[in-house]
Amino acid sequence: MQIQVSGQQLEVTPALRDYATDKIGRIARHFEKTIAANVVLGVEKLKHRAEATVKVSQRTIHAVADGDDMYAAIDLLSDKLDGQVRRHKEKLKDHHRRETQKARNGG
Question: 75-91, pLDDT tens digit by residue?
């Protein structure tokens, strides 16, 4: 999965880039079909904001999180994206599989 980290009115340090890449990269363990992620980190007055757009098969998922510091914002963003990706994966599952097998077997 390609992960692009950029800053909006903020210089992204290598430590911050590695942390964001590691946290967002964990999404791939839940859903193998993730294609790319674009993470934008920014600061507005005292509010640290992290937002991401993740492209998965058949859908684009977007989330925004605010925190007291940038690491907390990235953690919240990671949790939000993780939940959205899991819900998307559940929607793709075939929930009628048992019914189809019963109909084929005649029972």
Answer: 999 999 999 988 888 88
Environment class of 74 (CB within 10 Å of its CB; exposed 0-12, middle 13-18, buried 19+)? buried
Q: How far apart are CA 56 and CA 89, in angstroms?
A: 10
Answer whether 0.85 is exceeded by the pTM: no
Q: Which residue has the tokens 């992620």?
A: 37
23-51 burial, b at 16+ Cβ within 10 Å, e below that, comes to: bbeebbeebeebeebbbbbbeeeeebbbb
DSSP state of 30: T
Q: Are 24 and 52 in contact (CB under 8 A)?
A: yes
